[in-house]
Amino acid sequence: MATKHEQILLFIDSLKVGNKISVRQIAKELNVSEGTAYRAIKEAENQGLVSTIERVGTIRIERKKKENFEQLTFAEIVSIVDGQVLGGREGLYKTLNKFVIGAMKLDAMMRYTERDSLLIVGNRVEAHELAIKEGAAVLITGGFDTDDHVKKLADEKKLPIISTSYDTFTVAAMINRAIYDQLIKKEIILVSDIFTPFSETFYLTTKDSLKKWYELNEQTTHSRYPVVDDHLRVTGMVTSKDVIGRDQSLTIDRVMTKNPMTVIKETSLAYAAHMMVWEGIEIMPVVDNHNKLEGLISRQDVLKALQHIQRQPQVGETIDDIVTSRLEDISTDNNHVVYRTEISPQMTNQLGTLSYGVFVSFVTEASSRLLRHLKKGDLVVENISVYFIKPVQLETVLEVKPKLLDIGRKSTKVDVEVYHEKSLVGKAVIAAQLIDR
């Protein structure tokens, strides 16, 4: 049977879009306390079922879909170029696949103009008409207009004709920038995207004996399990460390670790990774708002997912990507690891010298490579002390020399020196935790 909280959420879900709701109304209609009604409305807001608007109240809304970050709509193009819509207004919310600059003869221009593309062109009415017939939208630069019959055709085809006062070069630069900005907005990956669901999760109850742990261990080869009560609420975790050498007739609640760390499905993957790495947790239960078990995530799955995201081509090149790709190994022997790089325009600040952030990326990447080279695992930086001794100009060639100062089972210290033509330009000391690869 559904709980009162679940009943309220089902009731809110059944309301028509636009309906106004309140705590008092919900409490009265469903015969629940105002506190229960308030918590359910807040949960409905988290799920995208309702929205609270200042001076209006809480309104039932359409559940929001995940946005497509990788494409621009024609409506966004109008906003980017401060444009005016001359025709085809009904097609503004279509997305464009590419744009073409019409700086060539008409027949050549049409070879590049495809359906759902955007032709950027000046006051060439014939080009406007042919582009609309091909299924492309038109952006007219220089503030020019077009003929009425072309506007009518655009309305029929539901393809926008936009006019802007900017010149073609400026418009192309503005759209390129907007597309790049869209590409670098990574969609946040949540625990719900990667977790092992309840139906595939092995767990123990507080009343099970230790013998049950051994049976599960033999069946699954896993050594860690969440422990739940009669209502499937997570109350503990049990691992091989807890059970080895103990009497198998003991109940799990006598040996388990109580109040374990948990996450909900809406937790970001980055946050889950941070918790698991820094707390040394191998698996973590995924629970609902009532602490009921919904599944599991493992540290291995989380790290794999984060590595997969970093390899996605559509994300665009970040500074870390540039640093990684341009750091060249020039070591002459295993004892003295040296990396070389050249300073590109993307690595500089407004003064044209190497930026502080990129310098930090260099020393961190060099330290990571040194530890991988020594087969010591990957590092997670805990603390970094940076000494920027001299400014580094554009196109300068640098040599980065990491050196291991200290290493333990779980932590390490690395000293990194950065040279230009045998002159020390920067230095850093990194303290980090080690993760087994």
From TrEMBL:
SUPFAM superfamilies: CBS-domain pair, HprK N-terminal domain-like, Thioesterase/thiol ester dehydrase-isomerase, Winged helix' DNA-binding domain. Pfam families: 4HBT (PF03061), CBS (PF00571), DRTGG (PF07085), HTH_24 (PF13412). Residues 195-254, 256-314 form the CBS domain. Keywords: CBS domain. The keyword Metal-binding does not apply. Coiled coil: none annotated. SMART domains: CBS. PROSITE patterns: CBS. This is DRTGG domain-containing protein. It comes from Aquibacillus salsiterrae.
